[in-house]
Amino acid sequence: MSQDHKEVDQKEHTTGEKYPFDVANKGLASKTTHTKGEWLCTRCEKKNAQEYLKCIHCQTPKPIQRRPVLRFFLFNSLTLELVLTPFFIKKSSSIPWKNTENFDCIIAIDFGTEGTAMGINMKKSKGVHLITDWNSSGVSDSTELNGKTKTALLLDENHNIIAFGNEAWNKYQSPNNEDANKWLLFHRFKMCLYDLASQYETNKQATVKQELQSMNEVNVKSETVFVGALKYCKRKAMQYLEQNNLAVDEAKIQWVITVPAIWSEEAKGLMKQWAQQANLWSPSIPNQLIIALEPECASVCMMLAMRDNQSEIQFQTGDCYMMMDLGAGTADMVCHEITGPFQVREMIASFGGPWGGSYVDRDIEALFKQIFGEERMKKFQVIHPKQYFQLLANIEKSKQRFFSNKKTTGAHRIEIPFEFNEFMQENFDGDLEDVISKLEYLGEKGFVSNTIFFF
């Protein structure tokens, strides 16, 4: 959530002060000593240069001056399943909603690494309208009934939009699709805006990927992909308004786009710029676009849920909490102090990293490259892009069902496309069983079997 939608009094970072809560160790931080130009980490007790906002050794946030807090609530392992920002949840007179009086409609895009959702709130009506017909045909599929669709964009060779979401995913791997080798599929592209180094060095210019690689390894400008995705979202929203007799002047629509709290200012600026190119907002209309931080949206949702459900735990002024937003691409953490009804103050700057669920998939992909060789995997991807895509989809499905069934054996199987099996039999020169028997992961052997990988 932006500065326009919360009361935040974030203090400047200072050194040499005792910080009452050590996030990493979940306990009271001991008093620290420091030398001029350096600060001492409260976790690993190593020194860091003044300009670093996080410890370069263990990534613990830099201490700031704070008074002791009264109480502390830790909401651990909170996975965001929200499809909307909190602006759409049951408006109340006790909530200081701001800068919406000039708009008749608010449209929010929860633009996630793995999934995208969109909702509409009309000023003169109650409730939230969820977009469930993401397909270009206007017909919902069963996987979109909860409002979410995949963050996937399908372009033709001229970079025209073919489809977005589950439709893009399904069209690309359709057996009747003869143009798949020419089409460009982009998935989980949101992470191109994440810059690791800029989190830790305030004097380093942030850098984000200028180009994205499609499933068949064709490079396209990041701008083209993001603008295309946002244009599609706008088109679906406007179609919904028209079909449901809710048409409104575009100048009276306020747009909200959610982003991870750990994104750099450059990344947030690019999202704002690309939203303008997609004609979501105009600089001449104040507050027409809100860049909202995902964990802060979750914070307000949590407060509303606690109030409406009459939870046993009710926040009071002075209470503090940690919010963990564990998504597919990133993990965001924020620490807030309650200063009033739906008003918070940041205790420390938001922090986190690229620790989302999609990195499980990447580790499994890395195992395939260890076994079969990176060059062979790249060759298979270029020659059989649809089947390579199917392999990645099978890895994701395998991960999702890992805890769904009771385990009767220690084996967890991954379905392999027939073309992959055939390709590797023709191109793999070594002894597969020997390679697998020697394979190590995190110092362990014997966890992979060729009977698990092949039919």
TrEMBL record:
Domain of life: Eukaryota
Residue ranges constituting the RanBP2-type domain according to the UniProt record: 35-64
One Pfam short name: Zn_ribbon_RanBP
The entry's keywords: Metal-binding, Zinc, Zinc-finger
UniProt cross-references to InterPro entries, sorted A to Z: ATPase_NBD, Znf_RanBP2, Znf_RanBP2_sf
GO MF, one annotated term: zinc ion binding
Stated name of the protein: RanBP2-type domain-containing protein
Source organism of the structure: Reticulomyxa filosa
